């Protein structure tokens, strides 16, 4: 992992990393990250992770089609999220699509961009728990390379405005 963040060094800009997934609360994370970018004078990096399906030799053609469909869905999700960020903060976020295990890809993106200053996730407010990524991340927080902000999926725009 990168030992030093460069986000506040001359010639660099702090960035907020936000994961755009299929959860109902992704919008809360994008909203907070966009508001953070305004206040920090920074940027937003939106990450969509495609977790690969197990493959066998006889289904490789189907796997290629599924991969192309997942790529298309990822682009569409990032289009929606980028439109939301632009509407909130008049910014054009960076877009990253990665394929692989969620935590591995998340750490790789942070390692590759020393300007990432914070990770923002949104937690599901329902009884089923905060969501798979928040749950997975909870076990890594003690060694995570950047601060993590977890936003409640139950917060309104006005509530997030007052916090950011």
Automatic annotation (TrEMBL):
Highest taxon of the lineage: Bacteria
Annotated UspA domain residues: 15-117
InterPro entries in UniProt: Rossmann-like_a/b/a_fold, UspA
Protein name as annotated: Universal stress protein
